[in-house]
């Protein structure tokens, strides 16, 4: 097995040449994608046109950031680097919740969308936390 950068014993992920897993296979990326698709497919479509460059833009950017950070981290081939990017992906999940609350407070997001969006974001956070714990354990084991 090859190690990226030859950093043996420092939490570098070993992968076999036959391994074809990508970020798309990660449960945390899938949970973040589910959140992003809900935001863009349900919440954004229900917002008034006047919010296109305000709340809609902020929601889209935060939701997209969740999946893109997981994807970027998976390309680092180092357990602790990947965990760092997964932690970064967790922040926009909370940001999405805050934007949904704001939208609900201002009468732009329904209570049902707030509840469902918050549930999806909290699920993504839970899966991210679990995956980060796994990555940190693997890094310790490789020392």
Q: Mind explaining what this structure looks like?
A:
With 143 residues, this protein is mainly alpha-helical. The protein has a single domain (2-141), classed as 23S rRNA-intervening sequence (de novo design (two linked rop proteins)), CATH 1.20.1440. 69% of the residues lie in helices and 3% in strands. It is built from 4 helices and 2 strands, in the order ββαααα. It has a two-stranded antiparallel ribbon. It is elongated and about 55 Å long. The two termini are 17 Å apart.
Main beta-sheet strand count, sense and barrel state:
2 strands, antiparallel
- The span between the termini is 17 Å
Question: For this structure, what is the CATH class?
Answer: Mainly Alpha
Cα Rg: 17 Å
Number of strands: 2
Structural category is mainly alpha
Indicate the mean pLDDT: 89
> What count of helical segments does DSSP give?
4
The oligomeric state of the chains shown is single chain
| Morphology | elongated
- CATH H-level superfamily: 23S rRNA-intervening sequence
How many structural domains does the protein architecture include?
A: 1
Strand coverage percent: under 5%
State the main characteristics:
143 residues; mainly alpha; two-stranded antiparallel ribbon; elongated; disordered N terminus
Q: How do the helices and strands line up, and which of them pair or pack?
A:
Elements: E1 2-3, E2 14-15, H1 27-46, H2 55-74, H3 79-105, H4 111-141
Antiparallel strand pairs: 1-2
Helix pairs in contact: 1-2, 1-4, 2-3, 3-4
What would a concise description of this structure say?
By secondary structure, the protein is mainly alpha-helical. Helices cover 69% and strands 3% of the residues.
């Amino acid at each position: 097995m090859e190690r990226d950068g030859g950093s043996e014993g420092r939490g570098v992920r070993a992968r076999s040449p036959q391994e074809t897993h990508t970020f798309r296979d990660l449960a945390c990326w899938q949970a973040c994608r589910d959140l992003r698709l809900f935001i863009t497919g349900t919440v954004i479509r229900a917002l008034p046109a006047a919010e296109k460059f305000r709340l809609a833009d902020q929601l889209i950017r935060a939701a997209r950031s969740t999946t893109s950070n997981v994807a970027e981290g998976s390309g680092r081939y180092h357990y602790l680097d990947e965990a760092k990017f997964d932690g970064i992906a967790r922040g926009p999940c909370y940001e999405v919740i805050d934007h949904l609350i704001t939208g609900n407070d201002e009468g732009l997001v329904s209570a049902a969308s707030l509840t469902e969006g918050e549930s999806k974001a909290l699920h993504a956070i839970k899966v991210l936390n679990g995956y980060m714990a796994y990555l940190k354990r693997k890094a310790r084991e490789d020392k």
